[in-house]
Amino acid sequence: xxxxxxxxxxxxxxxxxxxxxxxxxxxxxxxxxxxxxxxxxxxxxxxxxxxxxxxxxxxxxxxxxxxxxxxxxxxxxxxxxxxxxxxxxxxxxxxxxxxxxxxxxxxxxxxxxxxxxxxxxxxxxx
Length: 126
Description:
Blueprint: E1 3-7, E2 10-13, E3 18-25, E4 31-39, E5 46-52, E6 58-60, E7 68-73, E8 78-83, E9 92-100, E10 115-116, E11 120-125
Parallel strand pairs: 2-11
Antiparallel strand pairs: 1-3, 3-8, 4-5, 4-9, 5-6, 7-8, 9-10, 9-11
C-alpha cells in the first residue's frame, strides 16, 4: 500500500510564502518522479510543478514560474514546493503525486501519475 502525506498548507496573505512537503511510503514500484497539482473549487485539477529523478528535470506551469520552486529527494521519496509571492488565484487544494513504472509517466499530466495524496488546502487572502 502506497501512502502520500502532504503538509504545510494554510492561510497566508497575498505576497506571502508557504512551503509544502510530501512524503511517500510503501512500495512505489519504481518511482520516476513526483509532482504537485492543484484544484480550485469548480475547476479541474491542474498541473503545478514536477521533478523527474532521472536527470533531475523540473517542470512548471506558466502561471507559477518564478514564484514556486519544486525540490525533492529520490532516496526518501519526498518532494517539496516552496511557494513565494503568493496570489489569491493560487488558492486551491494542493495534491502531490508519484509517477512510477506502473504506467507511462507524463510529468505535466494528471494521467501520468500512479499514486496521489489526500491534498492540503492553501488559501491566499487579498
